[in-house]
Amino acid sequence: MAGVKSHYEPLPVHDLQRLLWNHRTSTGHFNHVWPKLYLGDAFTARDKSVLRQLGITHIVNAASGKYRINTGPEFYRDLNIDYFGVEADDDPHFDLSVFFFPAAQFIRAGLQSPNGKVLVHCAMGISRAASIVLAFLMISEGLSLIDAIRTVSEHRDICPNPGFLEQLRQLDIKLEAKRRSLT
Prior knowledge:
Elements: H1 13-22, E1 30-34, E2 37-40, H2 42-46, H3 48-54, E3 58-61, H4 72-75, E4 82-85, H5 100-112, E5 118-121, H6 128-141, H7 145-153, H8 162-181
Parallel strand pairs: 2-5, 3-4, 3-5
Antiparallel strand pairs: 1-2
């Protein structure tokens, strides 16, 4: 049947969770998960000596806001760090997907800047920030959701909540449809 394109369907959320649970690695305060890209927690985001040592030039705070990890651009003023804040709850009903493309664009710009290094963090660096990094790898680097999970999981133990996993599944479907339409 020439010309017929099959519908792409990534693994269901429960299988994605099983993949994450079976691929456990040690997780510190931060991990280098992609060239010049780090995934970490609030402790790392607030430790200016670690940020200097790593050479971080850009930060995505996936738990930004007054009642979360309230760092912001003012906190990093003395480090000359570009900042992107996402006021996200680690709640399966929170729509993180509206931040996938803007955050991916910010991360891509950071990685492409001279000597650019990016830290993406939330409170623990396993759900909100991990979801933003997975979306970046899918949007900017062309990885499937499974490949993005495997890539990040090789370096850091992550566990996006089920709602975020479903949003990433929907992104995977949309990106695959776009790729197929271009061929």
